[in-house]
Amino acid sequence: MHRVQAQLYAEVGEHTQAITEYQAALKQQPKNPDLLEALGDEYRATSRLDSAADAYRQELEIVPANPVAMYNVGSIAIERGDAATGVPLLEAMIKTFPDSPVAEYFLGRGLAASGRYEEAVDWLKRSAAADKDGEIGKRSWYELARVYTRLHRTGDAETAQREYSRLRDQQEKKSAQETQEWRKLAHPDSK
Fold first, then answer.
1. Which residue range forms the structural domain that includes residue 11?
2. Where is the stretch described as Disordered (predicted)?
């Protein structure tokens, strides 16, 4: 019952209520990895990254080879500046579940934070290529510009910065166009 209620709350963006229901469900099934993952997702949606990481770590203890849990714990560690924890988890995750642009992006960030710049370039280029016009591609180009700067590769840094700027401008233009279209739908008689 609690799980179903939690899922319903999550679907409509009521994350705090979903967390309460997932916690209640976990009292009945404390070793259920699916419930732990869902709880972690809800914590992450409310920017409670420490609580999210705790839920994902518990999931990883139950199912040690779970690539989703490895990604979740690893990416949060990278976001928190803990590359020593995040990089090995993301490397293991990518071996199990290759071709994940978002995991490649976080791995690249973690490698750069660890001073492993050449490896970071490889992973960031892969994530940028896999998500050419998306948010991860844009973020990858931004990180590439930073890494190339650290490597004193000025021309590459400038190219990466231009690509980041192009994608940022493209996304801003698209967002403005969507906003304008919504205004027309909401107020068809206004000019």
1. 1-63
2. 153-191
